[in-house]
């Protein structure tokens, strides 16, 4: 019986490998993205993933896809899994605002929240410099933006609000300082103390934050003529509101805090789309666990939702295309535990039977592009397959205990980019000589 079961499993694996080989196409240059560009068509939402937060090739290929979407299909902005205040400085720089800083290195060097390497890296520097050059040929109201979607930046958002209101709204400023004072009583440990305290006094600073958001929304029409700065101030108020909800949810077991975070990111996208007008189109850069439809993974059984699922449910009529990424082996930048020093870590060969292992055999050492519509009717892909996910904390020796997410791949993504062997990202903050630019910079951009 065991021999028969092993033979059946082997036969299925061989069938999967053969289908991956015949259905995927080589990926060597930007021109090899043509099938993906054709598939995207007129879609308004293109979600580009990554299987880690510290892999060079994922950043470079996302940038290459993004460049073509901006140049050929007129996409309006890029929205990423980053903090709003930090990314907003990149946005202003890319649009050529005089108050945005003199060079990309100085701006990226201000990214101080762990894990700093996610956005303070030379791969991002290369893309933002390209975007700045591209925008120089456009009118001010048509320049392509770069925004952060995340909810973590409570302190930075409150400081940005106070700085803005000091010049524009003394009444709302009082509400902002009251909310800030409330939170300062709980320290500066990313909401951990606040979360614990909320178990005993659930309301805590909720009233102060809601009052601040109400004041800003009531008075926003009277603010200055820089529409994007006004929008940014309102967005920072929404972050304060949702960060407070997120902190309260942290203390409870279950999917609550994850779901609040992804709902916040979708709501931010909705506000950005409205701000950019009826013809707006967006490119989203986030981890696979956010952009790949949660309903096609084990996340669903845990009550978790994500950005990819929510956008498909609400905006499929406008066109939502999700592109997952993955690799067989290589290296990555990560920490051994939360807040620990960044380091280059070896990523071992993918486990036998996993999506990445099968793709490695099918691709025969090549990088490949796969459109999932070629697999939708294949019975072998109706069952979950382990798909590797690496976070900012990574211990490869423990991979088999939690780094593979069971996924029905054609339902999770619309396309997949497979990189056989990857290299670690090039962080700005941990170089021996921080201003030393990598040899291949700007990485073919």
Kindly describe this structure.
This protein is an alpha/beta fold and 445 residues long. Helix content is 45%, strand content 13%. It is built from 16 helices and 11 strands. The strands form 2 sheets. Strands 1, 2, 3, 4, 5, 6, 7, 8 and 11 form a 9-stranded mixed sheet that branches. A two-stranded antiparallel ribbon has the order 9-10. A hairpin with an 8-residue loop joins strand 6 and strand 7. The chain is globular and about 70 Å long. The chain starts with a helix and ends in a 24-residue tail after the last strand. The N terminus is likely disordered.
Q: Give the termini distance in whole angstroms.
A: 55 Å
State the helix count. Answer: 16
Order of helices and strands: HEHEHEHHHEHHHHHHEHHEEHEEEHE
Shape: globular
Number of strands: 11
Q: DSSP strand (E) fraction?
A: 5-15%
Structural class: alpha/beta
What portion of residues is helical? 40-55%
Radius of gyration, in Å, reads: 22 Å
Average pLDDT number: 88
Largest sheet properties: 9 strands, mixed
What ranges have pLDDT less than 50 throughout 5 or more consecutive residues? 1-9
List keywords for this structure.
16 helices; 11 strands; disordered N terminus; two-stranded antiparallel sheet; alpha/beta; globular; 445 residues; nine-stranded mixed sheet
SSE topology:
Layout: H1 2-23, E1 25-26, H2 34-40, E2 45-48, H3 56-73, E3 77-80, H4 84-94, H5 104-108, H6 122-135, E4 145-148, H7 154-168, H8 170-184, H9 192-198, H10 206-219, H11 227-250, H12 256-276, E5 282-285, H13 288-291, H14 307-315, E6 320-334, E7 343-347, H15 355-363, E8 368-371, E9 385-388, E10 404-407, H16 409-412, E11 415-421
Parallel strand pairs: 2-5, 2-6, 3-4, 3-5, 6-11
Antiparallel strand pairs: 1-8, 6-7, 8-11, 9-10
């Amino acid at each position: 019986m065991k021999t028969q079961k092993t033979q059946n499993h082997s036969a299925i694996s061989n069938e999967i490998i053969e289908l991956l080989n015949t259905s995927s196409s080589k990926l060597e240059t930007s021109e090899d993205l043509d099938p993906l560009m054709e598939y995207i068509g007129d879609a308004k939402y293109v979600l580009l993933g990554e299987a880690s937060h510290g892999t060079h090739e994922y950043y470079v290929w996302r940038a290459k896809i993004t460049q073509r979407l901006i140049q050929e299909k007129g996409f309006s902005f890029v929205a990423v899994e980053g903090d709003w205040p930090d990314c907003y400085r990149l946005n202003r720089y890319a649009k050529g605002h005089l108050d945005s800083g003199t060079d990309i290195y100085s701006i990226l060097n201000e990214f101080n929240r762990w894990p700093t390497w996610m956005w303070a890296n030379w791969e991002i520097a290369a893309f933002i410099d390209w975007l700045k050059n591209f925008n120089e040929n456009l009118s001010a109201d048509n320049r392509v933006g770069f925004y952060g979607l995340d909810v973590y930046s409570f302190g930075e958002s409150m400081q940005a609000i106070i700085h803005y209101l000091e010049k524009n709204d003394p009444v709302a400023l009082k509400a902002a300082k009251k909310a800030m004072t409330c939170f300062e009583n709980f320290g500066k440990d990313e909401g951990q103390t606040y979360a614990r305290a909320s178990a005993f006094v659930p309301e805590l600073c909720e009233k102060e934050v809601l009052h601040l958001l109400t004041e800003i929304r009531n008075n926003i029409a009277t603010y200055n003529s820089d529409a994007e700065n006004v929008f940014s101030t309102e967005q920072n108020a929404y972050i304060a509101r949702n960060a407070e909800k997120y902190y309260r949810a942290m203390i409870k077991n279950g999917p609550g805090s994850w779901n609040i975070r992804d709902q916040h990111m979708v709501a931010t996208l909705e506000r950005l789309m409205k701000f950019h007008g009826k013809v707006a189109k967006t490119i989203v850069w986030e981890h696979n666990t956010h952009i790949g439809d949660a309903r096609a993974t084990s996340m669903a059984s845990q009550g978790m939702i994500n950005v990819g699922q929510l956008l498909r449910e609400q905006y499929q009529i406008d066109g939502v295309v999700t592109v997952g990424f993955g690799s067989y082996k290589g290296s990555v930048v990560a920490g051994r535990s939360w807040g620990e020093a960044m380091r280059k870590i070896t990523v071992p060969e993918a486990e036998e039977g996993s999506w990445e292992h099968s793709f490695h055999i099918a691709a025969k050492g090549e990088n490949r592009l796969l459109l999932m519509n070629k697999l939708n009717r294949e019975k072998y892909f109706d069952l979950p397959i382990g798909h590797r996910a690496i976070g900012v904390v990574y211990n490869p020796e423990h991979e088999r205990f939690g780094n593979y997410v069971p996924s029905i791949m054609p339902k999770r993504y619309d396309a997949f980019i497979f990189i056989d062997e990857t290299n670690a990202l090039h962080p700005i903050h941990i170089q021996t000589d921080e201003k030393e630019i990598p040899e291949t910079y700007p990485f073919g951009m």
